[in-house]
Specification:
It contains 7 helices and 2 strands; from the N terminus they run αααββαααα. By secondary structure, it is mostly helical. The chain has a two-stranded antiparallel ribbon. Helix 1 crosses helix 2 and helix 2 packs across helix 3. The longest helix is centred in the last third of the chain and has 17 residues.
Length: 152
């Protein structure tokens, strides 16, 4: 249901929140290596996050990404809406175009309940929360150094 693009965006944002600042910008190469995500795919995701003012960036030597304090309160749901809006707008797990409360597909009720629970959780989860849980050792960003991977 959720795309790799969204997972990579959250992992990248969490990494930047933990390791970056205006004084210590995170290069795309460091980010790619740090979360074990393909460099070129991650670059496109980061461009989208910069355009949507979730992260800030500077090009050139000493450049890279960082997250302003104000963006740390952005929710995972806001990131999902930017990165993968079709998931948010999706009304039918079975792909029916006219699936709704009046003409439900066989899985409509179950899907709506599951989707709403997931979306509520993502609305409550901020970048600040994710970074704090990784820093506390409750979640992990990579498989190389830890036993778990945080993909949400």
């Amino acid at each position: 249901m959720l795309s790799k693009k969204f997972a990579y965006a959250l992992r990248g944002l969490t990494y930047i929140a933990l390791h970056g600042s205006i004084e210590k910008k995170i290069s795309l190469q460091e980010l790619s290596d740090g979360i074990d995500v393909p460099h070129f795919f991650l670059g496109k995701i980061m461009q989208e996050l910069v355009r949507n003012e979730i992260v800030s960036s500077v090009k050139g030597p000493g450049g890279g990404f960082w997250i302003e304090d104000s963006a740390m309160n952005r929710s995972a749901f806001e990131i999902l809406k930017m990165i993968d809006p079709k998931v948010v707008a999706s009304n039918c797990l079975m792909g029916k175009k006219n699936c709704d409360h009046d003409r439900p597909c066989p899985l409509h009720a179950e899907y709506v309940a599951c989707r709403n629970t997931l979306f509520d959780s993502l609305k409550e989860t901020t970048l600040f929360n994710l970074a704090g849980k990784v820093e506390a050792g409750e979640l992990f960003l990579d498989e190389k150094n830890n036993s778990k991977i945080c993909t949400l």
